[in-house]
Amino acid sequence: MRGRTWAGAVLVLGVQLQAFWLAAAVEVYTPKEVVAVNGTNQRLKCTFSSSSPISQQLSVTWNFQPEDMSSHEPVFYYLKEPHKPPSGRFKERVTWDGNVERNDVSIMIWNLQPTDNGTFTCQVTNSPDVYGTIGQVRLRVVQKVNFSEIHFLAVAIGSASVLMIIVVAVVIICRQRRRKAQEKRTEVADAELKEKESLKRREEKEDSPLED
Predict the structure, then answer these.
(1) CATH of the domain at 116
(2) What keywords are assigned to this protein (predicted)?
């Protein structure tokens, strides 16, 4: 009996610990993918939710993994205050753009380059909530659109707009013609009905007996 009681107590304790872990976990939210133009700046948004009030021990860790799947690189760290990376590709190109009081731990990457293509991870701990999800956002840096591409895009948009105007005009004209045709058929039907009624009254008058 003692063995069964002990096993039951362990099982109940395990369930309670699992429930506590799920309740105390930090949930992190990031967009799945961000596309930015080469040479511009991009805000990497990261927000979180925690079952505990925001504490002085709240920490935020941003890391980066290039597309070639090489080792992770530190990007940014927050603990009581922002801490820029002491070295690496983002040393002079990353700034804090969050507000922990609003559950926002976003950062800003400046002067984006094609070598910045890869996956950024955002991890938040808020003691006693030290476990939870890790946000992942894939960054794609594209080249600037040249003049020929802009010209082609403008022509394509203009052509589509003209085509849309033509289609709308044709639809309006067809509807107007259909309405006029319907009105004309209604007028003809009314005229025919009036003529039949008039003919019927005339026939009834002719067929009625003459008064003495």
Answers:
(1) 2.60.40.10
(2) Disulfide bond, Glycoprotein, Immunoglobulin domain, Membrane, Signal, Transmembrane, Transmembrane helix
13 in any annotated domain: no
Distance between CA atoms of 157 and 150, rounded to whole angstroms? 10
Find, among 21, 24, 23, 27, the residue nearest to 134 by Cα.
Answer: 27
Per-residue confidence (pLDDT) for residue 153, from 0 to 100: 60
Judged against a pLDDT cut of 60, whether residue 176 lies above it is answered with: yes
* Residue whose structure tokens are 């949930």: 27
What global pTM score does this model have? Answer: 0.58
Domain that holds residue 71: 24-143
Residue 187 lies in a domain: yes
Residue type (1 letter), 96 = W
**Residue 8: pLDDT above 50?**
no
The reported pLDDT for the residue numbered 144 is 75
CA–CA separation, 95 vs 204, rounded Å? 99
**Under 8 Å between Cβ of 129 and 52:** yes
First to last CA, the chain: 124
